[in-house]
Structure formats: C-alpha cells, structure tokens
Specification:
This protein is an alpha+beta fold. It folds into three domains: 93 residues, no CATH class; 130 residues, no CATH class; 51 residues. It is 18% helix and 28% strand. The strands form eight sheets. A four-stranded antiparallel sheet has the order 2-3-21-5, with helices on both faces. It has a four-stranded antiparallel sheet with strand order 13-10-7-17, with no helix packed on it. Strand 11 and strand 12 form a beta hairpin. The chain is globular, with a radius of gyration of 20 Å.
Length: 307
C-alpha cells in the first residue's frame, strides 16, 4: 500500500491584491532554529519544492510591500520578519560609474559579484533582478556570483546616495528620486556607503514603524533572515497548518513570560538582532542599537512573570 505523500507544514495568510487572492506562507521563521543566510534564501525555496513537489517562489517585493503596508495580514505571519524580497539588487558607491562588475566585499564574507553588461558607465542607478532563483546564485572559488544576463535588469534611476525617506520606484518598489517627508506612501531606504550586491530586506523591527516601511539594501551575505513564499493555488493540497505543540507537556518548572503583542519568536529575534548590533557596532548605527534595546525594554515592562 502506497503511503500518502508527506505535506509541507507551513503557516499561511491570504489577502487580495488587484482583485486576486494571494497566499503567503512562512517557509523559514526568523529565529535561532530556522533563519537562513541572505544568499541561501532562494536555495531554501528550491529545496522545499524538490522535497514536497510544490511550486513555491520567494515572495516578490510587490507582494511583500502590499502585505506589510496595505493589509493587517502581516500580523498573522509576523514570525517571518525580517525577510528577503525575491529580487536581486546591486548598486555602486555613490558618484561612481559602473564598471564591468559591481563587487560587494565585506570583511569576513565571500565577495558577491554581478556583471553590469550594457549598463557599464552608468551612474546613479540601481540594478534589480526580478524573480531571482537559486540557480542564479553560483560559487566561483571563494566568490559568489549572481549569474544573470543584463536583459533581466530593471533599472532604478536616481538611486539615492544616502539613507532617508523616498517614494518607491513604480516597477520595483525600491526607493528612488529626491528625499520626501514621511507619509504612508514613502519608504525609508537603508543602503551601504560602498557598492552592494544582494537582495532587499523588509520588516526589520530595528527601524521605521516596526520595519514595515523600511527597505533595507544593506544586509551582508551571511545575514540571517526569515523566508516568506508565495503559494500558488495548485499547491494548496500539498500544504497543511503546523501541528500545535502539546499544551499538556511538562514545562520543567520554567518561568513563562507573557508579553503583550510580542510572540516568543519575535522576542528571540529582537534579542538576537540586539546581540548582532552590539557585535557589529562599527557598521550598524547607534540609533539601531538603541532602537533594539528600547523595544526589548518596553516588551519586558509589559510582561507578567508567572511560575
């Protein structure tokens, strides 16, 4: 007798976007057990599809932005944040023309490289690669190469040279143009002073309205994140809700802390990001460290400790 196919356990939420229902799931949470390095996120999706026969894809920036800023459904999958958007992204140091390649070199990390093709010589732009997949990310010795044709690039003109509030580029959602005042439609860009090659990140709780309006184009290759995926209608039968833990299990007399509006996974993520910020204080702004610490402090202020 053939055993039934094993289903992928995944928490999901469904919402409307342009009159179409979109289902988004948490493939990997942002916590110590499941978070995934930035450039390994497309590979995590490929592995899940191979194992379960699904056709999941890394969430697009368009869908992720709508989830975070136009719905309340983000609360149903809040354990995934911060997470990547499924687009490759590259830019050069401000004021520098593009050469044959853009190279992102961070101490202690593999170099990340992308060829600029016909955009060599351009200045003040960002190159975005829609629907980046695992096969686009290749190892070349100690380097990591985004092996994509320049025909796949979407150009973001007037890419900002400094962090701040900007309106999003219509085609990609990446902030561009001149600085603007805060509004619901504006997005807060965080970028490197140097060149950069990676994927944009959304939902970082360290900054900007719990990260929902922030676009973070500065994560290092090994930066660990959650993985959100778009679930096609045909995959519904291959997915089931996660099994709830047995509430009757012994707690070994541990102290349980109940914190209003903060899940255990979120608190774990906040503590880990606070630790990372302290370790990398030379790169992360002082404001980011303070924001993490204050968020944790406020959470514990609301806590009721129970034995």
């Amino acid at each position: 007798m053939t055993e039934p196919a094993r289903k992928l356990q995944m928490k999901t939420t469904t919402f409307a976007l342009n009159s179409k229902l979109i289902t988004v799931g948490i493939l990997r949470k942002f916590n110590d057990r499941e978070r995934t390095p930035l450039l390994e996120t497309p590979g995590a999706v490929k592995a899940a599809n191979s194992e379960y026969g699904t056709n999941l894809k890394l969430i697009s920036h368009r869908v992720l932005n709508h989830l975070l800023t136009k719905t309340s459904n983000w609360k149903e999958v809040r354990e995934v944040f911060p997470c990547v958007a499924g687009e490759g992204m590259a830019y050069e140091k401000s004021g520098t023309k593009l050469g044959n390649q853009i190279v992102f070199a961070e101490e202690g990390e593999s170099r990340v490289i992308i060829s600029t093709g016909k955009y060599k010589g351009k200045k003040g732009i960002a190159l975005v690669v829609p629907e980046l997949i695992a096969d686009d990310i290749q190892k070349d010795g100690n380097d990591i190469v985004l092996a994509v044709s320049d025909t796949r690039f979407v150009v973001v003109p007037n890419f900002p040279s400094v962090d701040g509030w900007y309106l999003p580029h219509e085609g990609t959602g990446i902030p561009n143009g001149k600085k603007v005042e805060y509004s619901n439609e504006a997005r807060y860009l965080r970028r490197r002073d140097s060149s950069y090659v990676g994927l944009p990140v959304r939902g970082d709780y360290n900054y900007v309205d719990n990260g929902r309006q922030g676009v973070f184009a500065n994560y290092r290759p090994s930066g660990s994140l959650g993985v959100a995926v778009e679930v096609p209608e045909g995959d519904a039968a291959k997915i089931e809700a996660p099994t709830a833990p047995d509430a009757t299990q012994e707690t070994d007399k541990k102290i349980v802390i109940e914190i209003a509006d903060v899940s255990a996974d979120e608190l774990s993520g906040l503590l880990e990001r606070f630790r990372q910020n302290l370790e990398t204080l030379g790169y992360v702004s002082r404001e980011g460290v303070v924001a993490s610490g204050r968020t944790i402090e406020m959470a514990f202020d609301k806590a009721d400790a129970k034995k």
